[in-house]
UniProtKB/TrEMBL annotation:
Protein name: Sugar phosphate isomerase/epimerase
InterPro entries in the record: IolE/XylAMocC-like, Xyl_isomerase-like_sf, Xyl_isomerase-like_TIM-brl
Keyword Isomerase in annotation: yes
One Pfam match: AP_endonuc_2
Span of domain Xylose isomerase-like TIM barrel: 30-265
Keywords of the record: Isomerase
Keyword Isomerase among UniProt keywords: yes
MF-aspect GO terms: isomerase activity
Domain of life according to the entry: Bacteria
Amino acid sequence: MTLKLSLCTTGFKEWDIEEIINWLLPLQADVKGLELWNKHIERFQEKHGPLDKLAKLLENNDLQIPSISGYTTFSKLWNQKEHQNEINQARKLLDMAHQLNCPLIRTFAGHIASRNASPEQWSETATELNKLGQMADLYGVDVAIEIHYDSFADNLEAIQKLLEDIDHPRIKLIFDGANLYVDQLNPKEVLESIFPHVSHVHLKNYHYNHKERYKNKPAPIFSGDVDNIRLLEELRKRNYTGFVSLEYFGQEGMPNLLASLEQWKQQLAY
């Protein structure tokens, strides 16, 4: 089974969508989607107007949108203004997704590690994410919580409890093995346990310094410390039908992204 490859445009913050697509054209045989950063969409709207123009641009280039990425956490309820801004942003993302025929939007759950969350913080965030699921249902769009260190979705037990407490069918997961490996967790074990909830996957790699995170060095997808080949084999074995998005940032992002695309072509294009 061939997995579908996409790119996270969050790594191209200074570029416009048109520039990303033009850069992508020679790679089109492998890349089938763009996971769009919400600011890229807003910038497109400022320049070109309605989103049907963006939908047409992507369709003309045979690109799908597996996810739209915002930056919400729903864990800062003490700051009413910020919390309302997150609700407004989520509603805007859901509307964008509906118009662009995109199946889900990305959120985070919490802004601190799960072990540091108070029972009240945890409960409030789960309640707000349930409300978000209800809102998403109006748009026919899912909400995917990204598995991420220093969030409420940072280990298997926390992820399982979070899903149980939110208890809404629109709430899904974005699996990210590299984010789990930051805390020296076994990504494959987590994937095996939560796979039914996974709607999208992020793929990247690092050479890790577990004592000093800021010294982590990005690496191509099959050259770092995370065994991404095993993770992709597990996805294939379980007949995963979603997208896998390459996610790289910063000055070292582009060379590692290009190397990752070459590795994907060599090892997985069958």
